[in-house]
Design brief:
It comes from Symbiodinium microadriaticum. The chain has 386 residues and is mostly helical. It has three domains: 159 residues, no CATH class; 53 residues; 166 residues, no CATH class. The chain has 13 helices and no strands. Helix 8 runs antiparallel to helix 12. The chain is globular.
Length: 386
């Protein structure tokens, strides 16, 4: 299936010119000479589109939620294409470096960096979609089209950030409920509408997470996600630098494969495990700040258990009782060592960020109008008694 999108009117004349020249014509810049940047972008976009089969009907095979999705959905097409590109690109060091940079930002101060990172992610996704469509529809001036798409979506997100968080929360919550909602399908016959109610609850919960509960949730989510990106990014970069050891990813292994090995569980199972850990940790810390050690332990627990599962299955003589992702094999040392690094980074940065969150909450309480009124009343009582 070829996805058709409306091309901005600014490039309608350029589109007609390039189409008339034919698919074999070289990509030319504004001065009529071959544009090196556009040629490189076209080659990259061509690889991105070819992963999904070009003009043939696109098949979504690698996504873990394929069984509950539609092969014809544009979202599944884009997600599958991006996933395959991450696995197949020859610039794995660039992908790993980007993952490391984002991971460091999240571990430094996730709540403060979230707006910048989210805006950048939206711009990058818009540029990627424009790149894909430019290749499929044979549109020239790819770099200009990508810049326009990235700038437009980036500015829209920046100026309407709170609204974008409502949309993000609704979409994320709905997608999570949809991915974990297989249990509702058999019950629909007895309880009509149960599935859609489950999806609506997921969407509402997602909106609350990314609006009302955003700061406490990010203070727990950012260390865990940042730790994963940091550990996997460092591992792949060290391998790309030429160092070979059993405790690192195998040579020329893609960053996405190395990160997936650390997660252990795949698809909605990992989303449920780590998402539940983040939510419970945030709830425990919000209930009482003195329970910060318990919240940090809850965040690190599933990561440590994943590492222990690899170690236990390696030393066990019977591997039939081990989960599929922990069955002993040639590359078991990287998941075990990587998870321990991930857990250490998560625990340390979560402690720091939860402490920062507590200090900010205390400052807000001191500076609130109610607190100021209480202080004024107390001062007036002291003056009157004197």
């Amino acid at each position: 299936m070829r996805i058709r999108v409306a091309v901005p009117w600014l490039f309608s004349a350029l589109d007609a010119t390039v189409t008339a020249q034919g698919a074999e014509a070289p990509v030319r810049g504004l001065a009529g000479t071959p544009d090196v940047i556009d040629i490189g972008l076209h080659q990259s976009c061509d690889g991105l589109a070819n992963f999904t089969g070009g003009a043939e009907k696109l098949k979504v095979k690698s996504l873990p939620w394929k069984s509950v999705g539609s092969d014809d959905s544009p979202l599944f097409v884009y997600a599958n294409s991006f996933s395959d590109w991450l696995n197949g690109t020859s610039y794995q060091w660039t992908v790993a470096a980007a993952a490391l940079l984002v991971g460091l930002c999240l571990t430094w101060d996730g709540p403060r960096m979230w707006k910048l990172l989210f805006t950048g992610a939206v711009s990058a996704l818009a540029a990627g979609a424009a790149c894909y469509e430019a290749n499929v529809q044979e549109i020239g001036f790819t770099s200009i089209l990508m810049a326009q798409a990235a700038g437009t979506l980036g500015l829209a997100t920046l100026w309407g950030f709170e609204g974008s968080q409502v949309l993000l929360g609704a979409c994320s919550g709905f997608a999570a409920a949809f991915g974990m909602g297989a249990w509702t399908k058999p019950l629909d016959a007895q309880l009509p509408g149960l599935s859609i109610c489950w999806y609506i609850v997921g969407a509402v919960f997602g909106v609350l997470v990314f609006t009302t509960w955003r700061r406490p949730m990010l203070a727990c989510l950012a260390p865990m996600l940042g730790g994963l990106l940091t550990a996997s990014g460092v591992g792949v970069l060290v391998c790309e630098a030429g160092l070979r050891t059993p405790f690192l990813p195998r040579g020329h292994e893609s960053w996405s494969t190395a990160a997936a090995a650390l997660l252990g569980l795949s698809g909605t199972s990992s989303l449920a495990l780590y998402g539940a850990s983040v939510f419970v940790a945030a709830a425990v810390n919000e209930f009482d700040d003195s329970r910060r050690p318990m919240a940090v332990a809850l965040l690190a627990a599933p990561i440590v258990l994943t590492a222990l599962a690899h170690l236990a299955c390696k030393s066990s003589s019977d591997s039939s009782s081990c989960p599929e992702w922990a069955v002993p094999g040639e590359g078991w040392k990287w998941p075990a060592a990587g998870c321990l690094v991930w857990a250490a980074v998560t625990a340390f940065t979560a402690w720091v960020q939860l402490d920062m969150l507590e200090q900010e909450s205390e400052e807000e309480d001191v500076c609130s109008p109610l607190a100021a009124c209480t202080k004024d009343c107390a001062a007036a009582d002291v003056a009157s008694s004197a």
